[in-house]
Structures
1.
Amino acid sequence: MKKFWALFFFFWPTVAMYCCLIAPSRGWWFPSPPMSRTGVQIDGLFYLILIIVTITFVGTQYAIGYVLWKGATKEQDSKAMFSHGSHKLEIIWTIVPSFILVFISLSQLDVLAEIRVISSFPEDAQKPAAKIAEVMARQFEWRIRYAKPGTDLTTEPSPGDLYFVNELHVPTGKPVVINLRTQDVQHAFFSPQLRVKQDAVPGLVIPVWFDVKEVGEYDLVCAELCGWGHYKMKARIVAQSQGGVDNYLKQLEAEQNEDGTKAESAAE
Amino acid sequence: MATVTPALDAHGHADDHSHGHGHHQSFISKYVFSQDHKIIGIQFLCTTLLMLMVGGALALAVRWQLAFPWQNMPVVGQLFGLFQTEGGQISPEFYTMLFTMHASVMIFLVIIPILAGAFGNFLIPLQIGCDDMAFPILNMLSYWFMWPAMVCFACSFFWAGGTAGPGNGWTSYPLLSDLPQAAPGSGSPQTFWLLGLTLVGVSSMMGSVNYLTTIINMRAPGMTLFRMPLTIWSMFITAILQAFALPVLTAAGFMLVFDRLGTIFPTTIHSVFFIPANIIVNNAEPTVGGGQPLLWQHLFWFYSHPAVYIMLLPAMGMVSDMLSCMSRKPVFGYKPMVYSMAAIAGLGFIVWGHHMFTSGMNPALGMTFMTSTMMIALPSAIKTFNWIGTMWGGDLKFNAVLLNCAGFVAMFIVGGLSGIFMAAVPVDIYFHDTYFIVAHFHYVLFGSTLFGVFGAIQFWFPKMFGREMNDTVQKWHFVLSFIGFNGTFFPMHLLGIAGMPRRYADPYLHGYLSHLLDMNRFITISAILMGVSQFLLLGNFFYSMFRGKKVGRNPWNANGLEWTAPSPPGHGNFDIAPIVYRGPYEYSSPESDALGQDYILQTVPHVAGVKAVAHH
């Protein structure tokens, strides 16, 4: 029975490892490859940590199994080893992990700065024209406000702004910035395929930049509890060529300004 | 050799000295409003075990909704008035209440009080060799303040007939928790919830003051700081954490209460600590304010991150004691263990910002908090290596205590390693508020702390009741809980990687999550297994309390002072006031060999003819 318990502690980490190994093929992994530049960097850092963590996991779990196995197969009347520890071992297992942890920590800084520090945003993202829309979260929807075509987005609404709900159109292949805010409680702008997440905090206007590599539709969901309907803040990010976005905005403008008079004048 | 051996009768029982103090106690003052630390500890233990089942039931309801969304709850769906308005179905509002109350019950009514309240109370005077706590009345009050807290939590849950209540998560972020219009029906219930939280804090604070004073002032002669068992060190450090962090939460709680009352009594109380101007919630009037919701997050996590260690450190200490005893071997690296607990506590005060990496706080702060958070993994790693070192080469006793402790170490490793992903800010941007974090903190809070507690209940049960628990049942309980636990929480890492956000009543609404239903069903089945297997623990606990095999003072052949007292100890604990000559972990030492045993009690003086063992 003793050996059973030792094997049990070998068994479960093995099963856990197996589940992780087959996970990508079963769809238990990222919803898609990263579709933005920072997404690629985030995934790279994730796999870096994953490798370090996997080695540590296997090493320490099997070490538990090993010491249990040694205890289980010990001769009946043999005594326990008498030791209060080892100064040398303590130093080794203090210094080695601290170097690894500092390394992990330092390896994050550049990406973090690029994502969050405004002065480290890519140059294109710092231009006023990169600011394509305001995303205003409210219970339980996303209100998108675009500037009147041909003008820059203002922080507060201006006459001629275009509005739409739960659908954000962005051009592909270049950094874009959205002004993220909330009308009521706290929400979070989360696009799993783009690996973008930022809370929308009441009272703050937070610029968020990202770029989308490929044309397509991506999910936009809420990642901060915002009330009973938190789960249904379902929206999509539509990535198109710049021309496609321009056409979309033109059409949106036409629909928004539609008052019945233009059609008549065209008929005359 | 001047060993003092208490006289034992044939069954290993010493005379019950509870009457030796010459004062008669009524049933009420002995078992209900007791000032005896042991009774208070057992009161805490029974209450928290009961609450564990309540919290577990709430969790199973959450799991039901995730596995079978919008389907009628079996059995309980029709049982209570609760669900009848929905025809036995969990509404989204009720879902938010379920996970809020699950967390509140588990954190504030189970984990914190079972560690500090139950084991802290029971073990501190016994392990340091004094007759009771420094302030017995304060100690009694710390237990009885739990009850108004529980009443407040219950009120918050049932106030609106169970259809509306505190659905803001246990973190209660404003403005959702601040403006009553933000979550219709959460008016008074949310205020009750905050009052309950404050009362739990008062209870914890009374405990902490008592533990600190007792440990500093009332140690037995010879019990130097570095002869204290690691359990005592962990309780000491935990008490410091609580004493310094709790006032911040209490203050923040009152600020939120005042903000909320402002909407009811706008002319008398009108604070806007967390409310910015011009917020329009649910078509109400725009708010007048100048407050800042991020302030709450800072204040809340300034308490609640140290609280994570309050929920873990005592288990770490107890596991060190148990592993050493069950391996018949001294703790590997006693002083590094103490220093790393101190380091965890110290660093624990400067890592709170890692809960706020996506909150929009200054990114320079994010970098600082990332580095300090990474560094807190270091003392955790040192402790893990030392636990493995303690078992290494030991004469292992394969009972359920050892298995639960080994389970603790194994689960703590998983929880610690998954934390590294979230300490790294860019990676956390993806994982924040997904099921990855749910997996992470359950590995720490359930996987580590509760498996440690399962071991500790069995280990100190003989001292509490003079009887032992059935080891075979405990082994079944361990293996079923362990399988159920890993089946529940390991796949949640994968849900997190797949991008499934927390606190979604119906994640399958989103196309990219709809294929995860099968995995969620598997998780729910595992959770049911885990929940049901807790009845083994409860059954064994209450059965053994009255029918378990009677045991003597020291059934585990352990070294600590508590094992020199009668089982159960009477009022005043020790029949012979202990004097301490050595550290608590000298198993299998040359001196114990000279006595012909593999342990040597802390009260045994130097054994003639054997070279004394030097401490490292």
2.
Amino acid sequence: MDDMLADAGRGISMENPSPSEVTELLQQWSDGRREALDQLLPRLYAELRRLAASYLRRERPNHTLQPTALVHEAFVKLVDQRAVRWQNRAHFFGIAAQVMRRVLVDYARAHDAAKRGSGEAPLTLDDRLVAGPGVDIDVLALDEALTRLASIDAQQSRVVELRFFGGLTMDETAEVLHISPATVGREWTLAKAWLYAELKRL
Amino acid sequence: MTPDRWARVKEIFHSALERTPAERAEWLSAEAGHDPALLAEIERLLAAHEQAGSFIEQTPISGVAIAPLRRLGHYEIRSTLGAGAMGEVYRAHDTTLNREVAIKVLHLSVAADPGRLMRFGREAQLLAALNHPHIAAIYGVEDAGGTKALVLELVEGPTLAELIARGAIPIADALPIARQIADALDAAHEQGIVHRDLKPANIKVRPDGTVKVLDFGLAKALGPTAGESAVTLPTHSVTQAGMILGTAAYMSPEQARGAPVDRRADLWAFGAVLYEMLTGARAFTGATISDTLAAVLKTEPEWARLPDGTPTAIRRLLRRCLEKEPRQRLASAADARLDLQEALVAPSREVSVEPQRVRRVAWLALPWIAAAGFALALVFAVWSPRYGLPPATTPLRFQIQPPRGTTTAGMFTLSPNGRHLAFTASSAGSSRLWLRDLDSLEPRALPGTDDASYPFWSPDGGTIAFFARGKLKTISIDGGSLRTLCDAANARGGSWNRDGVIVFSPGPLSPLLRVSAAGGSTAAVTKLAPDDSSAGHRFPTFLPDGIHVLYEASSQKPEASGLYWTTIDGSASGRLRDEMTNAFFAPATTPGENGYLVFRHDNSLMAQPFDPSALKATGEMRPIAEGVPDDLNRGFGAFWASTNALIYRTGTTVIPNRILVWRDRAGKTGATVGQPAAYGQGLRLSPDDTMAAVGIFSGDPTYLWLLDVRHDRISRFTFRPGRNPVWSPDGKTLVFARQEITVTTTDVYRKAVARDDPETLVLNAGVNGMPYDWSPDGKRILFQRQDPKTGRDLWLLPLDGDGKAVPYLQTPANETLATYSPDGRWIAYQSDESGPAEIYVQAVPASGAKYQISSGGGTQPQWRRDGKELFFISADGSLMAVPISLGAHIDVGTPHALFSVVDASEYAASRDGTRFLMNVPKSNEAADARAVTITLNWLAGL
């Protein structure tokens, strides 16, 4: 007990999630229990922030983070790789893309809410982490359009989810969906045009 | 689009891309020329393809969730402590109060959901009231730029989970820990708060041996709701989804089954924790959550694992806690504490403990006992001058709860000798005056004080003055003799000086009056500006000289409102602050020093050095408490201050303080619809009367919600701000106003009532724009637009055609609050063309000829759906009904009053006009039982 009591100053140590817990939550979620994601996302955020902070300490200040690598590293850390159902790397990427879609949509909503509230950004963004130009997309509108696209063409919607929200390459996307890279390319081209037309009200 | 058609689009699109642009047009017309719609779609997609460029080529993930959090409000984030189910937890430094705290940042999915946020706010208030040495405190809720966070007491030391991870805890150490946990549970259960997620990871053991239980009740405050967007009535079932192993192992069988949970679930978890401390192993385990829950439901713990020296009383206690049938289980945490106490004081008979351990037990227990003793000594030092102890020199803070079954609205006052707290608390809609001697535990209700409000003491502390049923009254606290002094119809506070003069405010739109405490006639103290009908003086408090009075002046004119002083004869007065707040002056303890003015600023309680003779501030103000609300939205802050003590209640300003009720034509109140909420900025019944579209204020924006009137279910309709909803004639669509905070103009959007339909912009309605109605033929939106020259005007937006709005009535007068007659040929509206706002009816399109419906003032016109009656609210606050017969001309009958709606802010008439859904305040008391914080000797802490 003396040793235990000497263990002061460690601060509140909340439960840090164990890989098996996160794995179980992911399984629940992929089984259709949407509430599991509510438990999952905070853990993912925390891990992402931890990783980002450690990269920033290690890397040169102008180093550009590879966000998708970061996300995947977070998953590798969080998810029990030995669990039977997660041996399929493709399945894992697929879930990651869905989770990131939720992350971004939640973020956009909260950001919207905050803009109307105080004019401040809701989360402290570190300039070094913000992606370069080109990312000027209304994520909420895209999410809505993507949901509409899913009702017309589910596979195209999945291709966009994996590539845009999951950051996967054409080849990785093909692996996840069990289709050829050429098909991914075709689906991507049309989906991109359709979404662009919807968002720009062409 | 059908699958076939989409397949065709795909095929043609890709084939077209294989051709050069030159070949494309000809090929396309050959391929799809027979089908213009198909051709148009392909051309649209090809154009998009040409323009899309790098669109969605770059993933937006970076910079979103991955930036480290550095600062939140006035909290500097120091380090990450972990991530729990509800969000991330940080160690942070409170730069205002200069202390270390733990901050739990709520996950975005909670922060973006007003329903969950509202629930969270309510729960957090309740939880913040928990004040116990073995419960980690909730300091408050922080909202910084959209990031919502809980500010919590930072507790150093390992969690019990970490301690157990190193092996079983010796009995002699485990029992004092268990006793403190039981103590915490007992205290919380007494206040009706169930932990719901008690487990070793939620229990901290500080280096001095003090145990703190974390996260009390947070499982309920932050847990997911049953549905995605529908908020159902609160249930106590725990959803199994999203549960983690670390929770399942301590879950009671009834929780595991999803049955309602009460404090007995905590007693089960307590047993599981105690078992694990003693054995080092979980009482119920499994490889997965399902296996673990199965073990909880079916298996017994391995009792043989308990160490040999486990006292019989403890073995019995464990079995009684881990009884699967709740009714057979140990009844209360107090019983557990007694068992532990028994085992602790008589260890020699049963526990074989090495001498060294015994010493450590004593050492472990000592700080706790010493701390309790210290607190008692302080209480006596302050409260019992008869013991002759010197006055305490450090502030002592504690909380008291309203009497069981009552709520308090924040009207409290401490007697001049600092011994008796008088406050109002209400139950079942009736408020009474209560008195609590601070050295006793039980408050008592004073008889004859029904409907009491705004109590204040006589300078000798023998009598309390208060307002009730339109009168100013006094009651002596020994014999309870009751006197009525004078009229005070709708009083707003009073104060009593040493010369026996009472200054009070008889109503929100009145000047201050004075009256002798012995009774007699009243005289005016202050004068209201004759040209300001919104002016009122209220919440007076005497300065120590008994001559000067502080008071709050309210007015819609900013230049006239604020905190003022006046002399008792009204001969002189002045303004102290331009914000509306009530205030108290607390003289300093040391003679020669000035003392402090205490008032509200924003949502904080402030203290500012103040010279009462010069009537001037002599230093900077500083915050002394955060989140002290303007109670009941009357400009009355929920605080009280004197030299002795600072008393306040905290909570959010968004109080679910309004309800929707049905009233019949006689004004008889019927059923309540939905739950109490901050309803406002829109209340419209759907054409078939089954749904109501309502605005609910939730912090800064108002969102629109849909209330299923028959089934009492509410669901969120807009995820971005919305107000002033208008139903389409078929009830399938709503248009509503949206004003972004950064712009001054209003946009009107439309959205189908069916789920998942995107909102579409209908028009920019400009400054002060507001949709009012949808024409019965569905072809036009009637809305208000404000013009710098002509004021508020009425416009019509055709929904077909070119979408250009045209004015309906644009005159120098303000035309507003308009509504189409059911036959679509007339519009009823409010105009101030003759001075006061009156209701008129005019044809569509406007002919200039109009029928004046009201006389002496009218607002909020609404038609009965058959067009045979028009309702409006008269200047004196009555709901009026006017018989009307519609046609090429109209015949207007005589308006007659149905009932008084002075308490209602909005109404919606049912189809047949037999009943009305009204937005009215919830009866006087605020929503929740909320604890009151008392800081004695608070000036020493400044």
